[in-house]
């Protein structure tokens, strides 16, 4: 299995963040920057400004996905390990939950990353058991 889970998560996070920052109208947030400027930027996310609140919570997961992708890439390439099995299963659970709630979602991409991470982890297990026997 290729070690692409980290890079795939980085790409998904970058796509999510760039669309949110550069083309907010594509996701239903046209004019959001003007609204944020009108309320004064600092502490703009309040319960009274649900549209800004929604935009904020749409933007933040992109950054978190990039960070998670960087960590996964580091695990795969610096440590030369597959991703932990719990991460693959966790991504699978989150992706399935989000897909069930919204079929028209980008979580289909996360589903692919989850399947790759799970398969890579299972594929690496026999070699790990052989390494444990030798030590």
Give the key terms.
135 residues; 73% helix
Q: Report the helical percentage.
A: over 70%
Amino- and carboxy-terminal Cα gap: 25 Å
Rg (C-alpha, Å): 19 Å
Beta-strand segment tally = 0
Q: What's the domain count?
A: 1
Report the principal-axis shape: elongated
N-to-C SSE series? HHHHH
Mean pLDDT: 91
The biggest sheet amounts to: none
The computed structural class is mainly alpha
User: Which parts are unreliable, with pLDDT below 50 for 5 consecutive residues or more?
Assistant: none
Strand content is: under 5%
Number of helices: 5
Summary, kept brief:
With 135 residues, this protein is mainly alpha-helical. Helix content is 73%, strand content 0%.
Describe this protein's structure:
It is a single chain. With 135 residues, the chain is mostly helical. Helices cover 73% and strands 0% of the residues. It has one domain. The protein is built from five helices and no strands. Helix 1 packs antiparallel against helix 3, helix 1 packs antiparallel against helix 5 and helix 4 runs antiparallel to helix 5. It starts with a helix and ends with a helix.
């Amino acid at each position: 299995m290729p070690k692409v889970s980290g890079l795939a998560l980085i790409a998904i996070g970058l796509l999510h963040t760039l669309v949110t920052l550069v083309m907010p109208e594509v996701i239903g947030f046209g004019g959001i920057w003007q609204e944020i400027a009108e309320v004064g930027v600092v502490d703009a996310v309040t319960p009274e400004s649900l549209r800004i609140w929604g935009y904020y919570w749409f933007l933040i997961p992109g950054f978190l996905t990039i960070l998670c992708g960087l960590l996964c890439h580091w695990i795969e390439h610096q440590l030369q390990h597959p991703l932990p099995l719990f991460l693959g299963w966790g991504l699978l659970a989150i992706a399935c939950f989000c897909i069930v709630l919204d079929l028209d979602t980008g979580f289909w991409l996360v589903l692919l990353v989850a399947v790759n991470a799970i398969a890579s982890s299972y594929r690496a297990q026999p070699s790990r058991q052989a390494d444990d026997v030798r030590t």
